[in-house]
Design brief:
Blueprint lengths: L11 H20 L15 E4 L4 E3 L8 E7 L4 H17 L4 E7 L9 H8 L4 E4 L4 H6 L7 E5 L5 E6 L6 H16 L1
Parallel strand pairs: 3-4, 4-5
Antiparallel strand pairs: 1-2, 1-5, 3-6, 6-7
Length: 185
């Protein structure tokens, strides 16, 4: 039988890595704010403002309906194509429980362009501003544009898609509609 000597010290690099991980977890936890609550346990209760300045908590949306979360920026043309496709889906299926959260990641220097851009595009789904990248750090750490997650009504990510080309529209629509159909059963 082999015995492990627990009295030995961890190497300095291992201790530093553990401390760094602990600090990261504490910092991320510090970004979580108290909101209306009631959302799924795995979704952080982050608050983001929409283009009209109203505060929205992720848990007010995710875990209640089928929710598409799309990360985008005003300079990203594939993002515009994806969001235009999502607008069509939203108009056709909002009554069936589809929610779209378009999370803009423009920095402080260009975030002022977002509201006019959204109004000019005619998007009627919820557009949230994440210029501090709090939500992107959790759901899009590689900062890929566009990046989409589809959450089922329990708050689980059931589909993820990165990049967008017009040829992707059929597949993406089918996946989202499949989740909506599964939820209707």
């Amino acid at each position: 039988m082999r015995h492990i000597d627990c009295s030995t010290r961890l190497p300095h690099r291992t201790t530093a890595a553990i401390l760094l991980l602990l600090v990261t977890v504490l910092l991320l936890t510090g970004c979580v704010t108290a909101g209306s609550g009631g959302g799924p346990a795995n979704v952080p209760n982050l608050a983001l403002r929409d283009v009209d300045g109203r505060s929205h908590y992720l848990t007010d949306h995710i875990g209640r309906k089928v929710t598409v979360m799309s990360f985008w920026a005003t300079w990203c043309m594939p993002c515009r194509q994806e969001l235009t496709m999502l607008q069509e889906l939203f108009v056709d299926h909002a009554r069936n429980g589809l929610e779209v959260l378009a999370i803009n990641v423009d920095g402080p220097e260009t975030v002022g362009r977002v509201r006019p851009y959204v109004k000019q595009s005619g998007w009627t789904f919820t557009v949230l501003l994440d210029s501090e990248n709090r939500t992107a750090a959790l759901y899009n750490p590689r900062k890929q544009m566009p990046m989409m997650h589809v959450f089922d009504s329990s708050g689980r990510i059931v589909y993820t898609h990165t990049t967008f080309q017009p040829g992707h529209a059929r597949e993406v629509k089918r996946k989202i509609l499949d989740v909506l159909k599964a939820e209707a059963r």
